[in-house]
Amino acid sequence: MSATVSATPATVIVAIDGPSGTGKSSTSKAVAAQLGLRYLDTGAQYRAMTWWMLTHGVDVADPAEVAAAADTPRIDSGTDPEAPTISADGADASGPIRTPEVTAAVSAVSAVPEVRARITGLQRSIAASAEGGIVVEGRDIGSTVLPDADLKIFLTAAPEARAARRGGELKSAEGGRPVDLAATRRDLAERDKADSSRKTSPLRKADDAVEVDTTELTLEQVVECVVTLVEKAAQAAKAAAGKPAAKAGQV
Ligand SMILES: Nc1ncnc2c1ncn2[C@@H]1O[C@H](COP(=O)(O)OP(=O)(O)O)[C@@H](O)[C@H]1O
Ligand SMILES: Nc1ccn([C@H]2C[C@H](O)[C@@H](COP(=O)(O)OP(=O)(O)O)O2)c(=O)n1
Known about the structure:
Blueprint lengths: L2 H4 L5 E6 L6 H12 L2 E4 H14 L7 H7 L5 E4 L6 E4 L2 E2 L7 H11 L2 H16 L4 E6 L2 H5 L5 E6 L2 H15 L7 H17 L12 E4 L5 H22 L11
Helix pairs in contact: 2-10, 3-5, 8-9
EC number: 2.7.4.25
Family: Belongs to the cytidylate kinase family. Type 1 subfamily.
Main location: cytoplasm
């Protein structure tokens, strides 16, 4: 086992929150892979629920209809950071959840308290059973879902940087066709507003979260920074538990 992994305790829970395009998914996957942890993309769960509703005739603009359907689909997440999976009622949802239709509807669906209660329950049970620990990324992980996480990170980035990153992804998805960056930026701002202003569990930095502004950092620099923070948090957790902190090379 490497010195890096040996610095983590038996179980370490890391919460990474922030708005779209700040680097949550890429950072969380890389950190989890590097430290031998599991990985959960909670946005994918909300997107899978939204996709299932759109394809099962639920009027996603009607919170009562959405609430009534919230317990119906089975949502399964595979937590291998090298190959995460997401399915709804057994159907692979990884492609369809990235369509513009799902992106446009997901904030409304995820604002419905019954949806949040259902998915929060799934998230807590996945985190509780993750052997060795897990990196969970989303909007309300540090503030609501896992308030006792060993480490909470809140990623931010300037709106132009976020739009440029999302625009790059959309361009690849469109086979290299140019993307309207101003429209991408507007879409992000609208989703930020909806996600931050909903009543139940809005997008919010937990009081004890470490904020990392990724605007001027490469992805590699962000990953390095978060890995260092996880190792420090793991050592603090060990010390608090009364055990001597592991030296490099010790398990
Ligand atoms: N620090 C960074 N610098 C440049 N590009 C980044 C950085 N972090 C992430 N990206 C890229 O930006 C895009 C969005 O990142 P992603 O991890 O999906 O963000 P989020 O999960 O917060 O929406 C991806 O294409 C990713 O490779
Ligand atoms: N913990 C979470 C995660 C996502 N959501 C909602 C709000 C987000 O706009 C959507 C989609 O999240 P996702 O992380 O996939 O979004 P991006 O990849 O950043 O575009 O889900 C949420 O309400 N709570």
